[in-house]
Amino acid sequence: MIPAPIAVALDAPDLETAARWASLVTPHVSTVKIGLELYLRYGPDVIASVRGASGVQVFLDLKLHDIPNTVAGAARSVARLKPAILTVHAAGGAAMVRAAVEAAPAARIAAVTVLTSLSEADLERAGISGPPDDAVRRLAVLAVGAGAQALVCSPREVAAVRAEVGPDITLITPGVRPAGADTQDQARVATPERALADGADLLVIGRPITGSADPGAAAAGIAAALRKASPTAGRDM
Ligand SMILES: O=C(O)c1cc(=O)[nH]c(=O)n1[C@@H]1O[C@H](COP(=O)(O)O)[C@@H](O)[C@H]1O
C-alpha cells in the first residue's frame, strides 16, 4: 500500500513521545514533520530518532525568516541532516528564499505564505487588507520566482495557488481537519478530502492524529478516506 500524502506534525514535548508517534503512524503516512518544539529542545539528534529504521521522509519545519546571509547559514547548517523538506517564510523576501534554495540544494525549500492560524481580520490588523487569497498568491509567486520548489498555504487557497503556479510546484497544506474535528488555533481549514481534491500534494496534520488515543488508527483512518476519495493520491509525496 502506498503511504498517504500526509505529513504528521510531531509537535511533542519530548523525544520519546515523538518517536512513539512516528513509529505508530509511519506505516500509513509518507512523511513526519519536526518543528520548533522538538528541534529547539533536542537539536539535530531528533532527526535520527524519528527517522528510525523506517526511512520515512522527514520534513524539517523551522520557518526560517531573517536576512539572506543568516538564512543561508542556517539552511547550510541543517542541510547535512538531509531533510526532504525545509520551511522558510516567503515574507522574508525573494533574496532570502533564494539564499535558502542555494544553501540547501538537496532539500525541497517550502515557502510558507500566510500562516493558517490567521483569519482575514487578523491580517487586516497586521496591515494586510483584502481576502487572504490575495496575499497568499502574491507570496506564492514571489517564492516560486526565487526558486522555491514547494509552498505552504491553507487548503482554502490551494486551488487558487495551483492555478497561479502550475503543476510542478509541491503544494503543502496545514489547517486540515476531518469533518467535525475541533479547529483549535487554526483559522483557515478544510477537510483532508477537500484539500486533496483542490490540488494539495501533501497534507500536514498534527493534533487530529497525535491527540487521538490511538494515533496509528487515526492516521490509518484518514489515509483510507483519502484513498477512497482519490485512489491515485500519494504517488509522489
Ligand atoms: O509550516 C507549517 O507546517 C505550518 C504552516 C502554517 O501556516 N500553519 C501550520 O499549522 N503549520 C504547522 O502545521 C502543523 C499543524 O498542526 P495541527 O493544527 O495540530 O494539525 C503545526 O506543526 C504547525 O506548525
From TrEMBL:
Catalytic activity as recorded in UniProt: orotidine 5'-phosphate + H(+) = UMP + CO2
This protein's record includes keyword RNA-binding: no
Pathway: Pyrimidine metabolism; UMP biosynthesis via de novo pathway; UMP from orotate: step 2/2
Domain (Orotidine 5'-phosphate decarboxylase) ranges: 5-222
Molecular functions (GO terms): orotidine-5'-phosphate decarboxylase activity
Enzyme Commission code(s) on record: 4.1.1.23
Database matches in PROSITE patterns: OMPDECASE
Protein's UniProt keywords contain Lyase: yes
SMART domains attached to this UniProt entry: OMPdecase (SM00934)
One GO BP: 'de novo' pyrimidine nucleobase biosynthetic process
Binding site residues for substrate: 11, 33, 61-70, 116, 177, 186, 206-207
Active site per database record: 61, 63, 66
GO cellular component: cytosol
Alphabetical keyword list: Decarboxylase, Lyase, Pyrimidine biosynthesis
Subunit comment: Homodimer.
Task performed by this protein: Catalyzes the decarboxylation of orotidine 5'-monophosphate (OMP) to uridine 5'-monophosphate (UMP).
Family: Belongs to the OMP decarboxylase family. Type 1 subfamily.
Protein name from the UniProt record: Orotidine 5'-phosphate decarboxylase
Gene transcribed to yield this protein: pyrF
